[in-house]
Amino acid sequence: RSSPWGGTPLRWLSGALAILSKDVRSEVRTRAALNAVVLFAVVTLTVVSYSLGGFRLAPEVHASLIWIILFFAAMAGLSRTFVVEAERGTELALRLTASGPQIYLGKLLFNLALLILLDVILIPLFQVFLPVREADWGLLLTGLALGSLALAASSTLVAAIVSQAGVKGALFTVLSFPILIPVLVAGVGLTRKAMSGQGFGEAGTEIQLLVSYAGVMITLAFLLIDFVWRD
Questions:
Q1: Per-residue pLDDT tens for 15-37?
Q2: Helix 59-77 vs helix 32-52: crossing angle, to nearest 10
Q3: Dist. CA 157–CA 118, nearest whole Å
Q4: SS3 173
Q5: 1-15, 65-79, 87-101, 196-210: lowest mean pLDDT where?
């Protein structure tokens, strides 16, 4: 049985995983994206914690701070996935060896892994510098995972668009921010409810929004990636 983009589904998926493997090996050698997102998060959190002293943050402020750090850390590192292909002159080879949806899926998985790693580092640091004393940790971690997926889904597509532009760095943030407003609003709302001790029943709207957003963005990216990156 063939996939919509040619070849069997298993062979198609192996192509996307090969792109993911290539990006992981490249990141292990350079650590460019990882250093960008982790250092931004650590520096921002350290500065904020020292400026606040022992002051205890309200759940609303705490939730907003988490998502501000996640957003700007993502802006610092996620654009590298496609931009690095243009900088190294490897984008033509990538276009010849894989379909657009395969490339998008491989890059999406890499960006998602990067954000999940950031979440894993960020939450313990928050507990050290700005501890969360009462929270529904299941809901909090679910919100961060869904928010990371939504961030990665849209940012990967924007990175493909920006890689074809002359001015890349600032343009990525300018294009991403209006697209990501629903993710930030839902993410802050869900995180605030988790830190207030509320459960999954009270956060159903935010969960549905994040899942729907990620699904729509991934579907649009699969349909548009050949046009925005190849042409």
A1: 889 999 988 888 888 777 777 77
A2: 150
A3: 20
A4: helix
A5: 1-15
